[in-house]
Amino acid sequence: MYVAVKGGEQAIDNAHAWMAERRRGDTDVAELTTDQIREQLALAVNRVMAEGSLYDPDLAALAIKQSRGDLIEAIFLIRAYRTTLPRFGASEPLDTAAMACDRRISATFKDAPGGQILGPTFDYTHRLLDFKLAAEGGAPRAETADSDPVPVPHISSILGTEGVLQPEPRTDTTPRDLTREPLSFPADRAVRLQSLTRGDEGFLLGLGYSTQRGHARNHAFVGELRIGMVPVEMEIPELGFAIEIGEIEATECETVNQFKGSKTEPPQFTRGYGLVFGQSERKSIAMALVDRALRWEELGEENVGAAAQDAEFVLSHSDNIQATGFVEHIKLPHYVDFQAELELIRRLRREAEAAQAPAPDAPAERTKEQEPAE
Amino acid sequence: MSPTADGTRFGGGFTDPSRDAARAFRTIMTVLARPGEIGTLDQVHAPAPLSQAQAALILTLCDTNTGVHLAGAADDSAVRDWVRFHTGAPLVAAEDAEFAVGTWDALQPLDRFAIGTSEYPDRSATLFAEVPVLAPEGATLKGPGIRNTARLSLPETGALQDNATLFPLGFDVYFTCGTALAGLPRSTQITAEDAQCT
Amino acid sequence: MSGYNFAYLDEDTKRMIRRAILKALAVPGYQVPFASREMPMPYGWGTGGVQVSAAVLVPEDTMKVIDQGADDTTNAVSIRAFFQKTADVAVTEATGKATLIQTRHRIPEEPLTKDQILVYQVPIPEPLRFLEPRETETRKMHALAEYGLMHVKLYEDIARHGEIATSYAYPVEAAGRYVMDPSPIPKFDNPKLHSAAIQLFGAGREQRIYALPPYTPVVSLDFEDHPFEARKAEGACGLCGAEDSYLDEVILDDRGGRMFVCSDTDYCRTRREAEEAA
User: Fold this and answer.
1) Which tens digit of pLDDT belongs to each residue from B6-42?
2) Is the separation of the CB atoms in A129 and A272 below 8 Å?
3) Selecting from 3.40.50.11310, 3.40.50.150, 3.30.2350.10, 3.40.50.300, what CATH number does the domain B17-191 have?
4) How many CB atoms lie under 10 A from the CB of residue C251?
5) Is C3 annotated as catalytic?
6) What ipTM did this prediction achieve?
7) Which chains touch A (3 or more CB pairs under 8 A)?
8) pLDDT tens across A302-318, in order?
9) Which residues 299-358 of A have a C-beta within 8 angstroms of C?
């Protein structure tokens, strides 16, 4: 006998309790602290901050713990929290030239003012599982040296003085805020960059990769990749000038791309740009590739129909919180619509069968499905 | 017109902002959804010459993101201070206004107000127009929100009929009279009652 | 839920949504863009409806939440609990007692009255989206009222299947102007779109709000030789015997046994209670 799915509330509570138990796992194993996550899973924390659009390593660590390591779920927790926060104002633009670089590399020059700084990178590790790490770990220390006080100018500024790199005009217009205004098209570059920096790393990685494989190839060199702490300044209306309110870790990537020129302008390199919270190297490079591909129109290039050139496609699908919600929502009950479809397909089949088989004795397998009497 | 409730320049706002604004909005929404219906907004006071209904419309709908135009006598320093203090709304020219506040006469000429674009008909102005009388009589209204027909005392019909012909473009109007409020969206078709027009 | 504002959203956000709702009521069927917020529930699970409800609710409301016509489906339970917690509103399962009903995929069977508001959760608000994926293009089509593509699609259905093969989210024309997606309600519900209640449609992920004021003329798109027909499974509800309500099919065993019951659980229960009382 039919019993409606009653007790939804109880079922939900039970599911939550079970999930909490699973989250804790085996209680003979020490519980993970959020400090441990913040310190030892820092790259996961960085990704959650970047795509959650909220720079707070402690909250990101908590979100990772709460989500059992599901980073998209953690990003979602951060986003939902972020929208409830009051806004006190906007910071001044970050001065990334003043970054205290932990890492700074250029693929376009063997050496440059400020030097090549490898920093804490996986790049030249041999990807061999380190079984010692499972057993002991320990407290490894790296040698330190006094920091070199020489400035570390952007590679782009060096190229810029020579005139071989297209200048990006400075503007003081307040960019639109994607989180406070609906996305509309055409989207200017500030909106596109905003969308990309909080976009899904995997999605951007795939799109960036596609440009390298010929889907709007733009011949990118990593002009510079830098990671480090940057001061955040904010103008306080009561004071009338900007003061430093803190610092954040960021990764910046500028690509130097295929040049263009015309009768009036001599050939110049162009650029793509990526800026992401935390140490997020892969994301920032992918972002720069996609940014450059999206600039086809303003740079007078041909639209070859590549996905990475299509701003509406990229921006409408890069947000993993929107994507995960909608992809997963199809597991919600849809039985009302399914019933409507079922009703329609049964009727269409009956009509098709009646039209094509007027014989009184229809073959048995065609009447297998049982239908309500009409 | 009403003085501010506590006698100060910045008084007269909602006492329980979240819940009061919710109730005020419900009235505002209902009268726009049902042209011809008259609602009451008597929770807040603004400096003269704003009416209580106009004051409630401003507090419920305006903020730092909406340009407000104060027309005629409403463009008064006490009103300006009150609007800025309570809403932070930038005060703008009629052409740039999302909301325009004044008497019906002071809001003329109406062709200054935004009517939206064919792709974005929502980018249009809404008028908070104070009128001397507001009653369910006079011009006949038809259209969305109205079962058969409704009637509403309109200060004039010609300009409002012209506005309706622009549909889906056009501005929307809230008529206010003290604490009374009626909505006239651009979708409403108007038939004049003779000797009604000004 | 201390620490959060009445009905969860901050006042700035509610004002922004409220302004969008008013524009939507002024231009029936036109999709007003709004800066949808990230809600503490996933996109695609009713964030648009929840934001619209939060902007419209007053403390005196009595709220009903249904999904698939039922009050006790898990997502309906979850959304109802959210508003009980954040807005402290009274809730009900009785359609007639509710002042605000949030729904996913159904319109209640009992006719709504002028004192009620129906809020729909909408996944894809753009009726032309499946014919033209680009927003920039569909926006132009609406601006020009150029709906030929939709008619071609419906007509191709007739050519292929002998009838319009759209059984839910069946497109309508609102107030003689905009072609509108009524949300994924079965087309059985389309005639109920002509209603005394205020109907508000919220699409969170797609950042759109649209509306139908009471008694707005709503026409399901059709052709003279193939008029629109509201459809449901034939037969009567196996529990209350209703012949006029939309039916869900319930599989009883693996030998093809099935029964049909009302999708509107309140309608079904009310009928059964009335019968028992008689």
Assistant:
1) 445 778 889 999 999 999 999 999 999 999 999 999 9
2) no
3) 3.40.50.11310
4) 10
5) no
6) 0.95
7) C
8) 999 999 999 999 999 99
9) 312, 316, 321-322, 324-329, 332-337, 339-344, 348, 351
